[in-house]
Specification:
homodimer; two-stranded antiparallel sheet; TIM Barrel; 7-stranded parallel sheet; alpha/beta; 12% strand
Chain lengths: 344, 344
């Protein structure tokens, strides 16, 4: 990961690059007409994720249009439950559905078919890699075990992951056993992604918010560390970005204890506070409010400047603090990129 | 607020009381059979809130059953939009609905009918007060302007208050003007509650999470400070508890800049961090995970002990970090109270 000319890899190796490299979470998404066109003919969402030709195409679209510094694999965090033997389907306009899972059955989760079930995702990366400009970094990703587990236990998305939290308190051994199985499958999945060309791996813990410290340690820190350890034990050395969204003051322990190389910050993170708790020189990614990108105008310029100023002294990858929304005009993305690149 | 024999008022006056006084957010709620019985004959939810006899009855129920140290007014944070001239209704099983509000019309919001529209809420407090045991404190409350505004702009609850955030970035003057109107109405409402017997006032900012610092300052700190200043200017001296749920590291500025006397903490707040940023001696309230209360058993005992230990050196009111859920067995509440009171 050293001696690279790719700005994003330089930052992750500890260099401060100005202007910072930039990409956007969910940059392959519905705000792009060319994505909607592919999506319309892709049919079922899971099949779409498992179609390397279509997934590679939408992964590349935002690179062609905006020249982002990174392409991120098009896939979904709920492919892992499928690999573990669970049923997952998407209801149009509503989101994911899963057969609700009783954590006491965690030994039924099978971790030996990860590579066969998720092989098409590796194939997507293999196809994207040679199509990227020399300076563009390819990022692979997976959901963190806690976030994936909340969907498995709840049977889909939920307002506050309440049933998952209750299960974690009520059946700690089974719950932690389930998280270990998910972590092991996820580690193997990420190793496969690195072998298929991913130069960076990102772990999304989208539901890390609101967890009391003992639960945060059990369900966020430990399983994330388990993934990082296993990925490293497999000889994979690419940088790993962790994103414990909403973790607040628990970012401090997350950054120091999980082994991730960099952290992605959410919109609510106060930069002065983050500077005070993150290890010296640890790269950060983030964390513009997607609502400011949607709003555009002066607010977007001011917020872009504020983020740039906040991180001037630290290796920084510019990104949003959450995914780009479908209603964002493409012109606002151009405005954002102009503003960042003017800083060069 | 001094010279009181009420444990909760002692804590809010800066005393450390052991065992700490305890009450539970949403303690007048569906987990109680006697509440469900009243709710079933109350009909429309808004009418229920505006029926002093029924609202007083459910406010008192948890005091009779559990002997909590505080009774909290039964009402809803969305009564304020009604007082401001907006339509609000509840859809069974779904939640609140409001006519979506364009913030640019903020001058249409009328603040001169607060006392006439919300008079029945004062009447609820007047009826509850003489029925309370001598040692029980009566708490009034309101939603914070940002939280109330999110419902007004979104037309109801929403996953991430995205439209409200976009409006706040896009129309800053109108949005802040709207927040000022809501703050002024809320201040008058809280003054009326104090005049009607409330001995403590609590401001619920349930959606304070995920806000970038400039937005947090504009939509949370400034309007909350405006309320506190106006309540004080009216001569009301009762303690005010602020609850900026999910504010993370922004709790530091909230506690120092809004003028609230105490802060309620959410489930995700790390006690060691909170101790380091809160003003010396500022009372705190919270912050057991409602999922641990639902789980019961050893997890509940351990988490109860952890919260008690965390706050042993500071004036502390025991509470949840979020409202009690309808599925909590009453026995778990008894278990919690035994565990706390054994500490005496």
């Amino acid at each position: 990961m050293t001696h690279s000319n790719k700005p994003l890899l330089k930052v992750l190796a500890g260099e401060t690059v100005s202007p910072p490299p930039v990409w956007l979470m969910r940059q392959a998404g519905r705000y792009l007409a060319e994505y909607r066109e592919v999506r319309a003919r892709a049919g079922d969402f899971i099949k779409f994720c498992f179609s390397p030709d279509l997934a590679a195409e939408v992964t590349l679209q935002p690179i062609r249009r905006f020249g982002f510094d990174a392409a991120i694999l098009f896939a979904d965090i709920l492919l892992i439950p499928i690999a573990l033997g669970r049923k997952v389907w998407f209801v149009a306009g509503e989101g994911p559905r899963l057969e609700p899972f009783d954590v006491r059955q965690f030994e039924d989760l099978t971790t030996d078919t990860v590579r066969s079930v998720l092989g098409p995702v590796g194939e997507t990366l293999t196809r994207v890699k040679p199509e990227l400009p020399d300076e563009t970094t390819l990022i692979g990703f997976a959901g963190a075990p806690w976030t994936v587990a909340t969907y498995m236990v709840e049977g889909g998305g939920s307002k506050d992951r309440f049933s998952a939290r209750v299960a974690a308190w009520q059946h700690p051994e089974a719950f932690d056993g389930m998280l270990e199985r998910i972590a092991d499958a996820t580690a193997e999945y990420l190793v496969m992604q690195a072998e298929s060309g991913a130069e960076v791996l990102k772990i999304f813990d989208s539901w890390a918010e609101g967890l009391p410290e003992p639960l945060f340690e059990r369900v966020v820190i430990n399983p994330t560390k388990r993934i990082v350890d296993r990925v490293r034990a497999a000889g994979v050395t690419v940088p790993i970005i962790g994103f414990p969204r909403g973790a607040g003051s628990m970012y401090a322990r997350y950054a120091r204890e999980t082994g991730v190389n960099a952290v992605a910050l959410d919109t609510g993170m106060d930069p002065a506070y983050a500077q005070s708790i993150l290890p010296d020189g640890m790269p950060v990614q983030g964390h513009l409010d997607p609502a400011a990108l949607r709003a555009g105008g002066d607010a977007l310029d001011r917020e872009t400047d504020r983020i740039l100023d906040s991180w001037a002294g630290r290796p920084h990858i510019f990104n949003l603090g959450h995914g780009i929304t479908p209603d964002v005009p493409v012109d606002h993305v151009h405005q954002l990129l102009r503003r960042i690149r003017e800083r060069g």
